[in-house]
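Intended use. Records like the one below are meant for learning the mapping from a protein sequence to its folded structure. Do not use them to infer anything beyond what is encoded.
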Amino acid sequence: MSQVLHTPPTTPAPAENDLAALAARHGLTVSGARPTLPEYVRQLWDRRHFIAAFATAKLTAQYSQAKLGQVWQVMTPLLNAAVYYFIFGVLLNTKHNVPDYVPFLVTGVFIWTFTQTSIMSGTRAISSNIGLVRALHFPRAALPISFALQQLQQLLFSMAALVVILLCFGVPIAVSWLLAIPVLMLQFTFNAGMSMIMARMGAKTPDIAQLMPFVLRTWMYVSGVMWSIDKLTKANHYPHLLTVALETNPAAVYIDLMRYALIDSFHGSQLPPHVWAAAVGWALIAGVGGFIYFWKAEETYGRG
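Structure written out for the chain above:
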């Protein structure tokens, strides 16, 4: 007589949406998921001490192998300024009709170097710290922001040398020097935003770091680092659109503002009305736009 075997009924597996609801009810989230923008900002603020300490540690280690150590923080931009003075100021005579050309040039070199190095270090912020990104959970924007902060700290060392140069060339201390504070705040916001944009691009395409020196060199030449854009455009009668592009170039805007604060106000020069508006506009566009652009790819950093 044959027996019929009966298997006990199996309990159906919970549907995928039921599991998601269960996880959400108990506060569980997907590992590596991108947080909301307000939550991301809060996480960054909670790690502000890490960002500052990381920037300082990077700055200290930058010249740790050199015998002169941190002196190179000031010597490097000064040597660059000396080379530019010989080539452009002496050989090409761009110092003609530019009062206080040495302070004019050194200010341009220091302010440009701040933007240049922030963007270059931001380009490698993710790719050169991939081990840290994969090992620890933290908002990845902390890296490009800390690199921009590192370059700000280095600029402050250079500004001490700039003050000495200004005094040696007869530029007196003035109330207008206080304008350097909001200028640096706006430029730092712009640089940090650009650093985040380049960090996302560099994380996806590391080869972009090889291209950036050529892009930045071209940008430097059109930013009035070695010559006066105002005098250049008036002397050559450029088309209106080209003149506007040169004058509203973000690097040129921050250089012009710093020169006005430290040098031009002493000579009674008037600052064009568009400069402050352009400086604030570029800071908001790059700072806010760059932050959102970087945040949108937060969950992709460290993969692959």
